């Protein structure tokens, strides 16, 4: 940059700063590629005035894939007037953000086609189902006016089931026992002086006081169970009937319930979590509306991708399109198979992430027996069966029907179910769920739909896993010529819509900066 250019930019920025304040100045600096690092992290959407500053217009961009990453790219670029076309191979938009309702058809690769026969108002989030508060997905819901409600990710009344148990335990019971015994062990070890080298006398007193609360242990530091375990008959006019004394420490450890209790300890799964009202695809619907349906071509499978000296050329089923830039958001394993001229290292990099199988089944019931009989309002039962989890709906409480997710599994379990016909998946899922909920789990079923993401055309996986974040991962963060990559697979938020959105924002920011810099 020459001194005179620097002066001009400085004068310009000072002018912007005086007129619009620091926010406007930083936005302009971001657009000019001058913002300091910390500021660059805050996303500033491209805006028409960015071009006014440079006296140039927006570019033409072809976006491959109308999933959450592709739609977010088109939405953000569209804010500044970029001319975006989104090519989508499927005949519907949304990618893995898929909500199935009555009449929806679901076709698998080399497999059967199911038709959802749900009652009116029933929906099945076959893909993403929960959003953490801190995720950018929440910002898009706010910005796009998508109403949200609580998603119950943890319910003390849900069950924990481990093979060999005669009856499932309530999560609260399992937790009371595990916390109780852990508290007892630690309190007794501390009391016996085993931790004296680590703890001062004050530390020991404070720890003891915490452990009494944590485990509900007695003055003698022994865990004997407590009302935290729950009741056979809850207190009311009478004192109720507690579930009784805990199993031995050894039995509690053998039951392996810690698996279930720690599920929501991480930053991704902690309560409260959220879901859009009426189905996860409300996010897709809102993005499509904002992008403009006419900018999205469905049934347009991409068959070739070429960098040209001054643009890109994309061949698809139904035509060829030329643009200034491309953002490719298809799953990496599909991009790797696409004929392109981006070079062998790019193909090798795209082949590096490993697709992970994932599956779900939606079981619709005409009676919300989990609420009526089990007193479970939302939440998840954790099992060590091949179904892994059972999700109860976090909406429609007390209505006449509802949909339970009968399995949500990955890897081997997802392959196991994925290879079965829908009928057999259902019957296997019912056999497993019956171990927890009894005969009604089978007899009261109204309809069902199952998905094996590894068998979904144009997707072929639940998500991907990177053996390492070096090399390929880093290479694909950068554009290959005029082709940018985006998707949850390029982030540390894999298998979250937030990953797709964050990645889209990154690609948009870099593409926009380049357009502003190269057109002057
Ligand atoms: N986001 C998915 C889910 O909520 C998959 C996932 C699970 C991702 C756990 C990270 C951690 O189930």
Automatic annotation (TrEMBL):
It comes from the Bacteria. Gene3D superfamilies: 1.20.1440.240, 3.90.660.10, FAD/NAD(P)-binding domain. InterPro entries: Amino_oxidase, FAD/NAD-bd_sf, Flavin_monoamine_oxidase, TAT_signal. Residues 68-511 form the Amine oxidase domain. The keyword Oxidoreductase applies. The keyword Signal does not apply. This is Monoamine oxidase. PANTHER family: AMINE OXIDASE, FLAVIN MONOAMINE OXIDASE. Coiled coil: none annotated. One of its GO terms (molecular function) is monoamine oxidase activity.
